[in-house]
Write a structure and sequence with these properties.
This protein has 357 residues and is of the alpha+beta class. The chain has two domains: 1-131, Creatine Amidinohydrolase, Chain A, domain 1, CATH 3.40.350; 135-347, Creatine Amidinohydrolase (Alpha-Beta Complex). The chain is 36% helix and 23% strand. The protein has helices at residues 3-13, 25-32, 57-66, 82-89, 91-94, 107-115, 125-133, 137-160, 167-180, 242-260, 268-281, and strands spanning 19-22, 41-45, 50-56, 71-76, 98-101, 120-123, 185-186, 191-194, 215-220, 222-224, 227-228, 231-236, 293-295, 302-306, 319-322, 325-328, 332-335, 338-343, 346-349. The strands form six sheets. Strands 4-3-2-1-5-6 form a six-stranded mixed β-sheet, sandwiched between helices. Strands 7-10-11 form a three-stranded antiparallel β-sheet. A three-stranded antiparallel β-sheet has the order 8-9-12, sandwiched between helices. Strand 16 (325-328) and strand 17 form a beta hairpin. The N and C termini lie far apart (46 Å).
């Protein structure tokens, strides 16, 4: 059994939970290495130290190739429902056990576990997310590769764009460059937001055209071997307003000060407060309308969360974003985002691209 599954079992057994049954794709990837497209189940037996991945037959070949050593991959016959096959195949193994599941677990499968299998069921999301938040050296290598692909793709795109192109045209070009540079896909719906659209943090790209005076936010990320990256740059065209130039510099100051406070043991809410106070010095804090950052891994948003309400404490191995933003409704917005990995009493920036473009 791989180390991350053993870590999960150690935590579960401390709570008298003997088996985990998972269905969320990021968790299946994290604990098995496989990436089934359709509904599948992963069983982690903490008593016998075994892992079983149950997939439809059409997923079997791919999952066999991608699964970690020691993961037993099974497929259900196409004329039998996967959950029915699972209950029959593992009845003796899980009957009357204490089972850990995710809070998004299908209610129909939950009912079968409690009614037919007489299992005691408890959600274990907090345990899983805590384990996933601390990255191994192998995971960090994959995330750094995803960051590198993102940077190269963005540089390629910037060199190819021109005045008159629409947000959607630039977005399409950037997504193409992510694939061209080796990405498996985008980590989220790429954001290209120009002028008034850039005042919306999660803007949807459309038909707004790039002008010589434009302010453009590009928020993008690649996926590499299942791991995500996340980066934002604000691009000021030659005739962009003076206020935009001033705001970007202030935003960068908030970014740098917050990043310098990243360390093991730091309270995530206090890191958020550092950036907020910098913006407040310039009376811009009221235009900062989201949290400072979040963890990144096999999901684009995961623990720890850096915002005013967060209770998270940073640990060595956490990979987080720092992304202060200022948004003037109906006019323009700016945001500068990079990823960092916590390393003891400091953090290392995972991107190398200049923060001001």
């Amino acid at each position: 059994m791989i180390k991350r599954a053993l870590n999960l079992c150690m935590s579960l057994l401390e709570q008298d939970i003997e088996t985990a049954i998972l269905c969320k794709k990021p968790n299946i990837l994290y604990f098995s290495g496989a990436t089934p497209v359709v509904f599948s189940l992963l069983l982690i037996d903490c008593l016998d130290k075994e892992i079983f991945l149950i997939v439809p037959e059409l997923e079997y070949e791919d999952c066999i190739e991608k699964s970690f050593k020691g993961v037993n991959v099974l497929y259900n016959p196409k004329d039998v429902k996967l959950t029915e096959f699972f209950m029959k195949e593992f009845r003796e193994r899980i009957f009357s056990r204490k089972i850990g599941i995710e809070d998004s677990f299908p209610i129909s499968t939950y009912n079968k576990l409690t009614d037919k299998m007489k299992c005691q069921v408890k959600t274990i999301d907090d345990i899983i997310y805590s384990i996933r938040s601390v990255k191994s050296s192998d995971e960090l290598s994959l995330i750094k590769k995803a960051c590198h692909i993102t940077e190269k793709a963005l540089c390629d795109t910037i060199n190819e764009i021109s005045v008159g192109m629409t947000e959607l045209e630039i977005k399409g070009l950037l997504n193409y460059n992510i694939y061209k540079r080796g990405g498996e896909g985008t980590a989220f719906d790429t954001i290209v937001a120009i002028d008034s659209n850039s005042s919306k943090p999660h803007a949807k790209s459309g038909g707004i055209k790039l002008r010589k005076s434009s302010v453009m936010i590009i928020d993008c990320g690649a996926v590499y071997r299942g791991y995500c990256s996340d980066m934002t740059r604000t691009i000021l065209m030659d005739d962009a307003p003076k206020k935009a130039h001033e705001t970007v510099k202030i935003c960068l100051k908030a970014h740098i000060e917050a990043a310098m406070s990243l360390a093991e043991g730091a309270k995530a809410c206090e890191v958020n407060e550092i950036a907020t106070k910098i913006l407040a010095e310039y009376k811009l804090d009221k235009y900062f309308i989201h949290g400072l950052g979040h963890g990144v891994g096999v999901e684009i948003h995961e623990k720890p969360y850096l915002n005013a309400l967060s209770k998270d404490i940073l640990k060595t191995g956490n990979t987080v974003t720092i992304e202060p933003g200022v948004y003037f409704k109906g006019k323009f917005g700016v945001r500068i985002e990079d990823m960092y990995v916590i390393k003891g009493d400091h953090a290392e920036r995972m991107h190398t691209l200049d923060q001001l473009i």
